[in-house]
Design a protein that fits this description.
The complex is a heterotrimer of chains A (about 475), B (about 325) and C (about 210). Chain A is built from 20 helices and 2 strands. In chain A, helix 1 packs antiparallel against helix 13, helix 2 (about 25-45) packs parallel to helix 13 and helix 9 (about 175-180) packs across helix 16. Chain A has a two-stranded antiparallel ribbon with strand order 1-2. Among the domains of chain A are: about 1-70, no CATH class; about 75-300, no CATH class. Chain A has about 475 residues and is mostly helical. In chain B, helix 1 (about 15-30) links the parallel strand 1 (about 1-5) and strand 2. Classes of the chains: A mainly alpha (about 475), B alpha/beta (about 325), C mainly alpha (about 210). The complex binds sodium ion (2 copies).
Amino acid sequence: MEALDIGIWVTCFLLVMVILGMRVAFAAGLAGIVGLIAIFWARKDFAGDEFGWALSVAVGTAGQVPHAKVASQALSLIPTFILIGYMAYYAGLTKALFEAAKRWIAWVPGGLAVSTVFATAGFAAVSGASVATSAVFARIAIPEMLAIGYNKRFAAGVVAAAGTLASLIPPSAILVIYAIIVEQDVGMLLLAGFVPGAFSAIVYGLIIVGLAMTIKNFGPAVGGFTWRERFSALLPALPIVAVVVIILFFVYNPIPGEVAIGGSVIDIPFGGDSWGTPTEGGAIGAFIVFLMALYRGMRWSEFRDALVETAKLSVMIFTIIWGVLIYVRFLGFADLPGAFADWITSLTMSPMLILICILLAYAVLGMFMDAIGMLLLTLPVVFPAVMALNGGLDVSAADSTFGMSGPMCAIWFGILVVKMAEFCLITPPIGLNCFVVAGVRDDLSVQDVFRGVMPFFIADALTIAGLVAFPAIVLWLPSQV
Amino acid sequence: TEWSVSLWGQRRAFTEHVERLAELVSERTNGEFTLNISYGGLSSNRENLDGISIGAFEMAQFCAGYHADKNPSITVLELPFLGVTSLEQESDLSMALYQHPAVVADLARWNATLLMPSPLPQYNLVGVGDAPATLADFDGLTVRATGGIGAAMETVGAVPTSMSATEVRQAMDSGVVRAVSFAPHAHMSFGTIENATWWTTNLNPGTVNCPVVVNSDALVDLSDEHREVLLGAVDEALDHYLSFYEEQTMAAWGPALEERGIAQVSFGDAELSAFRAAAADPAATAWIQQNTARGLPAQELYDFVTGLIAESN
Amino acid sequence: MAAGSLVLSDDSIVSRIDRSLLRVEYAMILVGGLTVFGLMLLAVFSVGGRNFLNAPLPGYVDWIEQLMPVIAVFGVSYVRREGGHIRMDIVVGALKGRALWLAELATTLAILLVAMLLLWGSWEHFLRSFDISQPMWSRDSSMDIGLPIWPAKLVVPVALGVLVVRLCLQLWAYSLAFKHNQARPVAVPLLADVATQAAMEAKQVSSREQEEAN
Ligand code: NA
Ligand code: NA
């Protein structure tokens, strides 16, 4: 049996285990170990007395992965980003944001729903996880929408959809995971998520305004706030802006260090040097939010709960990471990614069509799978293929298929894939965000939320089409750095 | 026979000798003995010795400084200011040290046999801002330099910071560090020269030692003919590496600096000897002391290396 | 906003052992959480030291690499106890009674196999970095400031060891459930459908909201 055959068999074995309901992390680990045993045993022509050797080498190889792959500076962003979200909740930032958004933009048609979208987008700037974001806003935003006559299904749908913004707008745990798997610059990817996240929010907003103008009794605009009320609502929400700005200064400091005015060079205080790396920026953001939560009177028991919840979510994510990386280690020995890339590039379809097929495949897969597990399982094989399709990792923009350099293509594809993964959080049958929103409200069934979220399928389809057709939406910001 | 070879990153000047070795071995055995090279698929770069030790693959490359305690004996070649002046000298020196019984025993703990070095030039600094004219200008300079080079920079008042190579470019552009210590090929591939303003031509603070090793059992298990082919091709592979590094990398290096208007800073002999006096001897003393405690004949290894350098200069 | 525990308890031996083990596991996950907090403080010191004192924390990256396994792996058994590791429950979700317990027995057994193999492999990985005859018992050190790596590598087999105990306990509990055809067995996470789970998460959020209001 060739290494490649083993690779295909073991991959099928893994899929069966996952479908039968084995925990994804351990299914991947088992598939990896079984595959490694087969690979090493095959080297000895499957001689009966060599099985013990193959087993010990396979186990030795797999046993390195949990420590070796996890002890990484870049991955330390994930627990930090999760911690920020929990701390922000205790710091009371969610309510403040919603109130401010309401007073400023609720006067447009469908105003309260639009406000919900933008308040969520604001919270996304401190929260790294989508599901947590939806859970928080379902509690705050839905009652207010219902009170002024919104359809309850639609109100729930808005919250479920808007929660997905948390994974595009930095900080984002899932963007970090993508960057790690494909070995690209985390800072650039986080930066790249910003404009598509804002773009998604605007598309959501426009869809709502459009619905509000066509459907009767949709839900009234909410006006009548005085400017005084508006400005006073900004104050409690200001910490979010402060955190975002400070993170930005830590990572990218957009202010030049000096300017020339009339022939003399003037130093700008705080200009020029940024104050840190993405890793440090995330940690400083968490620290600031922590101080705010302390100021708001967070107690030890709350702090302990926040830490345990952070650790729990981190362990869950990291177990999938190392489990899947054991499987990926086996794939490396079987050289499956190389073979798949060769196959993709040998297809006679147009490269753009292939890319669209890949994205559609993610949409289907995402109906049944968790976003992180899906990316980790597929990217080691799919990413090299997409890079090969564009002409390789080192290709220049001029020689490439999609008109962008290798690293830029990696960023573009990353944002597309993450947007797909987020889309899957609101599609039936396993749209986790919808389940969470339904869970918050006793009067809403999961089916209600799925029905209410449907307009946002169209919004997401438009967004993804926009990102595919106009890569500049993704690439403009990172190309400025 | 098919051997798996664990490298990392992608094909570059740093891996040309392994690529050439694979070609030569396959040619000379009519394809009966092949080296199957994988870039990062088989192991992480810091786990390559572990993989060799358990027999997951037969050949691998690593750098001594990644994990000094795994291979203390060869870190002697990473001491600052040894005075190595050329790649060829670095190569010969490494090959000689790799035969030393204490070094052989050290690597035997990993079931590994040292095959050949991947000689790298001195890790001179690329930096932004005002170019340092004298050693005094290094005072307070933030620099990305790890291990022995970082310690050496500290002796003249610089502030060494550690970060992974992939974060270096951004750290430099954003001003987290003002200077970076790399070999020229890494300065080019990690993009540190893109916004830099100066380069030190002759600071020569030291380099890293990155050997290629083979699994000792696998080497013994080879047929006599194949083993002879493999070991016999090492010199030719190394020659190819050296000429590739000179002709491709170093040839691109000068123009790359000029294109970007990067000032080339050279220091006078007096400055350099002052630096050496401040950094080299304390580092060597510390190294000898620490490694004697590990049970290595550290003084002997240090004298062996410095003796060879003195001989050839 | 993870769900509250879905594990029932009573006075049986299996449940008492479950709760004793839980105390150990909770301590381990709390250590993980405190380590996340420590990681944050580490960055604050590093940034502060560099920007205000021109003295960055020596070996900042080395320290992060030491701490990450504690965050990522140490609490693995706690998450297993709470049923927190992700899976697809389209098939299992449709099962009931003995068929369900049989399926859970099978996957738990498979996970036990993975855990034991990795316990073996990670223990050997630890042993390769550990040498009692060397200074600081170290045979593998970090890149920048030469910290011994064996403590960080030891985290993995310790965490997996506790996980193996947990999995054995769950095997026992699931076989009891299968034998007596129990509807709601103790000491194992009950299969809440995703909706119930979300409801619990929501309750958790609401209770915090209420606390805040008071
Ligand atoms: Na976010
Ligand atoms: Na879905």
